[in-house]
Amino acid sequence: MKSIFSPRRRIALLAVALLLFPVVFSGAFARDIGVAFLLAAISASAWNIVGGYAGQVSVGHSMFFGIGAYMPLLFYSLFGWSPIAGIPVGIVLSIALAVVIGMPTFRLTGHYFSMATIAVAELIRIFVGTWDFVGAAVGLQGPATARGWWDLTFRSELPYYYIFLAVLGIVLATTAFIERRRFGFYLRAIKASERAARSLGVPVRRTKMQALALSAAFTSVAGSLYAAKTGFIDPDSGFGILVSVQMVIVAALGGAGMLFGPLLGALILIPLQIATNTWFGGGGSGLTYILYGGIIVVIARFEPGGLFELWYRVVPERWRRAYAT
Amino acid sequence: MLLDAKNVSKAFGSFLAVSGADLAVDEHEIIGLIGPNGAGKSTFFNCLAGETMPTTGRIVFAGEDVTRAGPAVHARAGIGRTFQVPITFEDMTVLENVMVGAFLRRPHRNDARDHARRIVELTGLQPEQRPRSLGTPGRKRLEIARVLATDPRLLLLDESLAGLTPTELQAAIALVRRIHDMGITIVIVEHIMEVIMTLTKRVLVFNQGHVIASGTPESVVRQDAVIEAYLGRAHRRQQDQKSV
Amino acid sequence: MVAVQVIVGGLLLGAIYALFSSGLTLIWGMMNFINFAHGEFVMLGMYAALMVVVWIGGGPAIFAIAAAVALAALGVAIYFSLIRHVTRGPMLAQILSTFGLALLLRYTAFWIFSANFVSLPQNAMSGTVNLGGIYLPIAQLVAGLVAITLTVALHLLLTRTTVGSKLLAVAEDRTAAMLMGIRPDRMQALAWGLSAGAAGIAGALMATSYPWSPSVGETFGLIAFVVVALGGFGSVLGSLYAGLIIGLIQSASAFWLGAIYKDIVVYGLFVALLWLRPQGLMGKT
Under an 8 A CB cutoff, do A196 and B99 touch? Predict the structure, then answer.
C-alpha cells in the first residue's frame, strides 16, 4: 500500500505546522510553549550529533550552552553592544572548550568522556559563580528595552518563535546532510563499535572531535538564543546540571541518533514539564526532576533507542530509513 | 614482497605472547597461521593488523613501515581484517555496513553506495537486511564484505570460517577463493584442517609464542614438533614407540 | 599548629573519601562500569543514619551498621533490576542508567527530606579531644580511623580471601571464571552490595561530623571520580592513598584560598588528571 505520506511530504507537513502554529494559536501561553519547545528541540538536536549519532554521551553539555548564553549578555553589559556580537564569540569559545575536553578523553573509553563533561561543567559553573567580571552569582542582564531590532529584545514572542524555528531548521538540515554522507556513516560506525570502525580505516578520534565541535557550536547558539529571549543569565540557568539533563532526556526519549528524535522528545517533555510545574506549584520542579530521572532510567533499561525505536520495533515495515541511502 | 614481518615479539608485562616471529608474504599468496590456543597466533595477527603494537621487530607493508601504526593506518595502507567474533554494526543495514568500508576509498556517497552494492551482490547478501537476522555465518560473511569494500591488498581472516555447517563451509571456502582470484593476498588464522589443506599454499605453525614450523600444509602436519604441539609429548613418544 | 590541625582534619576527611571511593573503584575494576549515582549512595547513607537515630535512637555503631546494610541491599537490588540489563548494551544505556538513577535518588531525597541542611543530634561521639595541642572532634577522629580500617579491610577482602579472588576472577575474565564454576552474576551483585555498603557506611561516618542536604550527593560523586582517577581505576589501595591526598588538598585549599575554592581545586585536579595521567597513581589503564 503506497502511502500518500511519503517522508518528503511528512517533513513538509511538519514544517508547515510549525510555521503556522503561532498564527493559529495566537495566545501568549501557546506561543510561550512554542518557543520553549523550539529551544528544547534545538539544544537536544545539537546534543544529538555527538551523543546520539556518535554515541559519546555528554552529561555536561550545559558548559557550551552557558558560554553561548553569557557571551551576548557580557558584550552588552561591558560595551553596550548588541547581543548579536557575542554569538560568534560564544561559538568559538565553545569549540575551543570542546577540543580541550575531547583531546585527552577521546582516546579513553566512553565513561571518561562522560565523567569529564560533568566535572568540567560543574567546574565552570562554580567558577563563574565566583567571578565578578561575569556577574558572579547574580549573573548578567540584557537590554531592558530594545534600542533596535539588533538588541533581540522583543515584546512579543512571535519574532523569537520564528528566529528559533529558523535555527532549528538549520540544525536539522545540517544533521540530515551529515546523516547521508561519509561523516554520518562514520559517526554511526563509531557508536556501534570503535574497534571495528578503526579496522575499516575510520579516523575515530578525529571524527569524534569534529562531532563534538559541531555539537558544541550549535549548543552555544542555543544558549545565545535563550539569553536573548529571557534577557538574563546566571550560573545555574547557564551551566547547571539540569540544563544538561534536559538536553539528554529530550533527545533520548524521542530517539537518540535519529533526526527527529529530539523533536519528538521535546513535543512530549515540554508540555509535561509545564504541566507538572503548574500542578505542583513550587515543589513542582522537584517532582519534575524525579520524573525525569525515572524516565531516563526506564529508557536506559528498556528502550535506549527511545520512542522512535520503540515505534520501529512495533511496526517493522517502517524500518526503511528512506532518507539514509 | 607485500608484507615483511621480521622478529616480531610482544610482551604483556612479563608474559611473552609472541617471540621472534617472522612472516614474509608475497603478492597473491594464501598463507595459513595455525597452532594450539594461546600459542600467540592471535597476538601476532593483531600486530599485523595494527591493533597491538609489537614490543620488538618490524612490520613493513608495500614498502611502508607500519610497525608503530594503528589499525586505521593499516587499513588505509591496504591491510584489511576480520574479527574472530564478528563485529557488525547492528543498527545499520547490510548495505550501510558495507558502505562504511567503501567510504575509505570513495568519499562520495554515490560512489561508495554503488561499490558497496556490487560487493554485497558478490558475497551473496541482501542489502536491506539487518545483521540481527543474519546469524553468525551471515555476520561473518557481512564482515568479509565490509572489509572487501575497503579495497584491501592484504586480507587477514581471523577464524572467519569457524562454526559453520559443512555446506556453509564449502560456500565460505568458495568465497575466499573468489576473493583470492580478485588479486587479494590472504593470511588466514584457522583451526579447521580442511580449510588449511585446501586453501593455503604455505603454513606457519605457532606454539608458545614461537614459529615452530613453516612450509606446505602437507609437510608441516607431518613434522614432529607440530604433532607434539597439538597432541603433547606423550603422544609423540607413543608414535615413536609404534614405529620401533 | 593551625597548619597541623588543617592537615590532620584533611586526612581524616580524606579517609572517608577513600572509603566510599573504594566502592566506586571496585565496580569499575569489576565491570568497567562507572556508577554515576555513587555519590547519592553516600548521601542516602547519611539520611539512613539520621533516620535510625530519630526513630530508634541508636548510637553510632548501630546507625553505621544500619546504613551499611540498607545501602548494601539497595546496591544489590539496583544491580539485579537495572545494571545487569545494561552492562552488555550500548554505551548510551549504560551511562544513562546510573545518571538517571542519580537524578531519581537525589530529587526523591529533596522531595522527602527538603533542601534544608540537617545534622545528627548529639550523641556519644560529640565533643573534642586534645591530642598534643591539636583539638579534634571525637567524631571526626573516630570516623576517620574507622574509615581507614574499613578501606584496608576491603582491600584485604579482595586480595586475601577466597571470595575476593572470585570477585577478581570475574573482573579479569568473565568467561574463564564461569568455566571455573564461579557465577559472575552473583559476584557482580556482591560487588554492588559491597560498593553501596561502603558508600552507606561512609555516609554514616560523615554524618557524625558534617551537616548535609540531598545536594551533597553530587559533590561526593565528583570527589569519588577524582579519587578514583588519581588512585587508579580498579585499585582500592590506590583509592586509600588518593582519598587521603584529596582530603588534604581540599582542607588546605579551603583554609588558604577560601571555602568556595575547595571544590574548584578538586574538580580542576580531575580535569588535569584526565589530560595528563588518566591511569592515576596506581591503576591499570
Answer: no
Q: Judge: A188–B92 Cβ closer than 8 Å, yes or no.
A: yes
ipTM (interface pTM): 0.90
Full strand arrangement of the beta sheet holding B79-81: B79-81, B154-158, B185-189, B30-34, B202-207, B210-215
Q: Does residue C285 lie in a domain region?
A: no
Residues 188-207 of A with CB under 8 A from B: 188-189, 191-193, 195-204
Number of H helices, E strands in chain B: 10, 10
Domain holding A238, by residue range, is 7-319
Segment (H or E) for C121: none
Taking one residue from A and the other from C, the number of pairs with CB-CB distance under 8 angstroms is: 140
Q: Does B114 touch chain A (CB under 8 A)?
A: no
Please name the residue of chain A whose CA is at the shortest distance from the CA of residue C98: A297
Domain of residue C50, residue span: 2-117+134-276
Q: Cβ distance B6 to B56 under 8 Å?
A: no
CB interface of B with A, residues 82-101, below 8 Å: 83, 87-93, 95-96, 99-101
With respect to residue A324, please indicate whether it lies within any of the assigned structural domains. Answer: no
Taking alpha carbons only, the member of A28, A229, A237, A66 closest to residue A143 is A229
Distance CA B96, CA A17 (A): 32
pLDDT at C137 over 70: yes
If one looks up domain B3-243 in CATH, what number appears?
3.40.50.300
- Whether residue C36 and residue A59 make contact (CB cut-off 8 A), yes or no, is yes
Domain count, chain A: 1
The structural domain count of chain C equals: 1
Is the distance from CB of B9 to CB of B53 less than 8 angstroms? no
In this structure, are residues C67 and C197 in contact, taking their beta carbons and an 8 Å threshold?
no
Q: In this complex, which chains have at least 3 CB pairs below 8 Å with chain C?
A: A
What is the pLDDT averaged over residues A251-258? 94
Cell of A2: 503506497
pLDDT tens figures, A64-82? 999 999 999 999 998 888 8
A9-67 residue pLDDT tens: 888 888 898 888 888 888 888 888 999 999 999 999 999 999 999 999 999 999 999 99
Mean pLDDT of chain A: 89
CA distance A22 to C228: 51
SS (H, E, C) A48-72: HHHHHHCCCCCCCCHHHHHHHHHHH
pLDDT category at B40 given cuts 50, 70, 90 is confident
Domain boundaries, chain B: 3-243
Which residues in chain A touch residue C112, judged by CB atoms under 8 angstroms apart?
A: none
Helix (H) or strand (E) holding B209: none
CATH number of the domain where residue C168 is located: 1.10.3470
Model pTM? 0.91
